[in-house]
């Protein structure tokens, strides 16, 4: 999924680093998306 994201959209370097760090911790891209969509996290 991440390569597709990189091919289709320009990703800010800081966001890319955060996403890769999360993946290294075992957090999926879908979990990140769900977290960002949840209004209780803002």
UniProtKB/TrEMBL annotation:
PROSITE patterns xref list: SIN
GO MF annotation terms: DNA binding; protein dimerization activity
GO BP terms in the entry: regulation of DNA-templated transcription
Signal peptide: none
One Pfam family cited in the UniProt record for this chain: SinI
InterPro entries: SinR/SinI_dimer_dom, SinR/SinI_dimer_dom_sf
Keyword annotations from UniProtKB, A to Z: DNA-binding
Protein name per UniProt: DNA-binding transcriptional MerR regulator
Species annotation: Neobacillus niacini
């Amino acid at each position: 999924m991440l390569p597709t994201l990189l091919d289709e959209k320009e990703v800010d370097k800081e966001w890319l680093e955060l996403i890769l760090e999360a993946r290294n911790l075992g957090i999926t891209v879908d979990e990140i998306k769900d977290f960002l969509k949840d209004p209780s996290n803002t």
